[in-house]
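User: I'm preparing a small set of examples for a lab meeting where we compare how different chains pack in three dimensions. I only have the primary sequence for this one, and I'd like the structure in token form so I can line it up with the others. Please keep the answer compact; I'll paste it straight into my notes.
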Amino acid sequence: NTVWQATYPRPNAAEGTNDLVIDREGNIYITGTIGLSTFESDYLAVKFSQEPLSVDENEAAPKYDFSLFQNYPNPFNSSTTIPFSIGTSAHVRLKIFNILGQEIVTLVNKVLDSGNYEVTWEAANVASGIYWYQLQSDGFTESKKLLLIR
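Assistant: Understood. Below is the structure token output for the 150-residue chain.
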């Protein structure tokens, strides 16, 4: 169930993850070590971040009556709640994708009346990692990331 892995091509190397932290801006920091021999080791720190989008204030943004909100809790252990709202009755799809863009599960795929909704994802059969959830409806698409930690 490994989504991504990097290893040192050295025999008898001892690898380990030390910490995984998410800051207030949504950046993810992972630190780890590798023992190459009794007297030689390396330390690795990786930062995953999303660049903010710029907005041209002279260009009118399209108006949608749909909103996708951040899941909670995030990070989560076994299940998380994904809230969203729709302003008009429409066919709605809510899907979960792994970091490679492969669809993991479809949580909603039906016509919903206008209103506020919450869907729970029970992530029992997937590995720890970063996932994306995406809401689609009538020309509207929005995605957000979530983090599963076992």
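A couple of notes for your slides: The mean pLDDT is 81. The chain has two domains: 14-48, 66-148.

User: Perfect, thanks.
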